[in-house]
Write a structure and sequence with these properties.
Layout (H helix, E strand, L loop, with lengths): L2 H4 L3 H4 L2 H5 L2 H32 L2 H9 L5 H7 L9 H18 L7 H29 L5 H26 L5 H22 L13 H12 L2 H21 L2 H4 L4 H22 L2 H14 L13 H12 L5 H10 L6 H27 L4 H26 L8
């Protein structure tokens, strides 16, 4: 790993406050915060609406994470736009599409089929937006602060999820799901205004025209290397399976689902704060395997049908393990050539989100035939197995260099 991203002094020589003094980073960060809050609110409202109308654990789980299924389509077709010549314009356009999609969910009486269709459309364009945002992040934040910047965004994601789930549960006591969708649309619109007024245009990286051919060329190069495949596997599968566990919280305990989801978000926040801010790059790499195990092991307690306080504590502790994504993302960035880093980060994010949808679908499908607690335990056990058996390949990936194009 290059010295500019692995210096042991990085956490002490800069901080979140210094990052936020960068106007463009502050704009990207604020728009990401608002978008995450809107997504959390709309996802929780839709999950509760579907659970009320159908009573199906499968449909409820898919409704909360269904948008992630379409992110893989973005990764396979147009993700090269993340490295296009005018990424700011691209991000603004994609944010407009997101605004239209969230606002459409607020239409009263909209059939569930139409709502699921909107989820797929939103997932497709959101994946392109994530790739573009991460490509811009690599431009506006110095390389030595990349892990810190990702840590701050992950912490914010956890914090907004805590607030979003808690606020969503509160709002649904007084508003219909359509009312919550209106609030989510307003937050999405505000995110659009922020990014349009704070981020300048960057003519960056790509020398060839973005499109399907360019996307496939880069993806083939990416997945032809065993190191990148191992990193992607560990960034996608364990996380996705554990998100599948979270997708069953409403079915597992409808009255305490908000508390369980908030506990998971709080654990993720704490983990990213400690791992991203207080540990050096070498320490992050050293603890990565233990963090990936921590992500799943506490969920095995659900086999004993724990009391609500114990379940909440287990979810909180397990979610600290989500911080394992930081050292893996650092390794991936270090082995990626600059001209395609937006697309590669977009593919990583899209695959991670897609696996969240896959995990939710698997969890919901298993829960149709057994109890939600049993399904949660089974997915956690599979996550542990994937982490253990793939470890040798992740270790070898540390020797990867920027030699592919």
């Amino acid at each position: 790993m290059p010295s500019d991203t692995s210096s042991p002094t990085t956490p002490s020589t800069t901080g979140y406050r210094a990052l936020l003094r960068n106007r463009e980073f502050a704009g990207l960060y604020a728009s990401f915060t608002l978008t995450t809050a809107a997504s959390t609110l709309s996802g929780f409202a839709l999950g509760m609406l579907v659970d009320h109308q159908t009573g199906s654990p499968f449909l409820t789980a898919v409704s909360m994470y269904g948008a992630t299924f379409a992110t893989v389509l973005g990764a396979l077709t147009l993700m090269s736009v993340a490295d296009g010549g005018r990424p700011r314009r691209t991000l603004v356009a994609l944010q407009c599409v997101s605004l239209a999609g969230v606002a459409a969910q607020a239409i009263p009486g909209l059939p569930l089929t139409a709502r699921f269709g909107l989820l797929l459309v939103l997932g497709f364009f959101q994946s392109l937006g994530t790739g573009t945002r991460m490509g811009l992040l690599a431009e506006v934040a110095p390389a030595s602060t990349y892990a810190l910047a990702r840590s701050l965004m992950n912490i914010t994601s956890g914090g907004m999820a805590i607030l979003g789930y808690a606020l969503g549960a509160l709002l649904l006591r007084y508003l219909s799901p359509q009312g919550v969708f209106v609030i989510a649309a307003a937050l999405t619109g505000l995110a659009l205004v922020v990014v349009a007024t704070t981020v300048r245009e960057h003519s960056i990286r790509l020398t060839r025209r973005p499109g399907l051919r360019q996307t496939w060329t880069t993806n083939v190069a990416l997945f032809s290397r065993s190191g990148q495949r191992a990193l992607m596997l560990n960034l996608w599968v364990p996380n996705g399976l554990l998100v599948g566990c979270e997708a069953l919280f409403i079915s597992y305990s409808p009255h305490h689902a908000g508390a369980l989801l908030a506990a998971g978000s709080a654990g993720m926040l704490i983990g990213d704060l400690v791992v991203g801010r207080l540990l050096t790059a070498d320490q992050r790499r050293r603890y990565a395997f233990g963090l990936r195990l921590l992500l799943a092991v506490p969920y095995l307690l659900f086999a004993t049908h724990p009391s609500t306080p114990v379940a909440i504590a287990a979810v909180f502790v397990a979610s600290i393990g989500f911080a394992a994504t930081l050292p893996l993302q650092e390794q991936l960035l270090a082995s990626t050539p600059d001209p395609v880093r937006g697309q590669v980060q977009g593919v990583e994010s899209a695959g991670r989100m897609t696996w969240q949808g896959v995990g939710a679908a698997i969890a919901g499908g298993v829960a149709q035939h057994c109890t939600p607690g049993t399904a949660i335990t089974a997915l956690a056990a599979i996550s542990v197995a994937v982490t253990v058996f793939s470890r040798p390949f992740v270790v070898r990936a540390r020797a990867a260099h920027r030699t592919w194009t």
